[in-house]
Amino acid sequence: MPSKDQVPEGPHRELLVLLFQMYRAAGRPPLKQIVSTAERLGLDGTASQETVRRTLHGKIIPERWETAYAVYAPLCALAGIDPDAEYYRNDFEGYGEPDTSTHKELFRQAWSAAFDTEELPPPILGARAPQVTLNANLVPVSDFSGEPPF
Fold first, then answer.
1. Which residue in 26, 27, 55, 133 could disulfide with 79, CB within 3.0 to 4.6 Å?
2. CA-only gyration radius of the chain, Å
3. pLDDT at 5 over 70
4. For residue range 72-123, what is the model confidence (pLDDT) as tens digits?
5. Long-range contacts formed by 139-147: CB under 8 A, 24+ apart
6. Partners of 86 in the beta sheet?
7. Quick one: three-class SS letters along the chain?
8. Are the C-beta atoms of residues 65 and 45 closer than 8 Å to each other?
9. Distances (CA, A) of 48 to 5, 36, 84, 135, 142
10. In whole angstroms, what separates CA 55 from the centre of its chain?
11. C-beta of residue 62 within 8 angstroms of C-beta of residue 55
12. How high is the pLDDT of residue 114?
């Protein structure tokens, strides 16, 4: 598990905690075994050994759910845990029922939260691409006058 200096507290670390819980329960399998198990499971997505390694080291968060699940599902299989089984979380504060969901749902929520909080480049406000058309002489003609749109 990466240190808190490598992956600080937050959604990405919470995702890694879930991954490492399953990785340990699976007996810390080698990357090749994780990938071959994913292939045997016939999942919708795939993950290479490098993708699994970089995900477990906290270097990346897979962009596609199918890829993230191709890292998690084989760990569940190797640990003998059904991803669709209920995962009991005892983090409620004594009010009402405890929050429960399946291993797969919990992992998907963590993946989504981690992926959605990754640093994105700032938006370019007020910019728009000019519309370019060609006139009969095949000379570009733009409707962009250079004037602000307000």
1. 26
2. 23
3. yes
4. 999 999 999 999 888 765 555 555 555 568 899 999 999 999 988 755 455 5
5. none
6. 102
7. CCCCCCCCCCHHHHHHHHHHHHHHHCCCCCHHHHHHHHHHHCCCCCCCHHHHHHHHCCCCCCCCHHHHHHHHHHHHHHHCCCCCCEEECCCCCCCCCCCEEEHHHHHHHHHHHHHHCCCCCCCCCCCCCCCEEECCCCCEEECCCCCCCC
8. yes
9. 26, 10, 24, 50, 46
10. 9
11. yes
12. 92
- Give how far Cα 34 sits from Cα of 12, 48, 50, 133, Å: 21, 9, 11, 52
For 115, the token pair is 């992926």
Q: In this structure, what token pair is assigned to residue 21?
A: 């819980």
* Pair of tokens at residue 116: 């959605």
Sign of CA dihedral 77, 81, 87, 88: negative
Which residue(s) pair with 132 in the sheet? Answer: 142
- Predicted confidence at residue 49, as pLDDT, reads 95
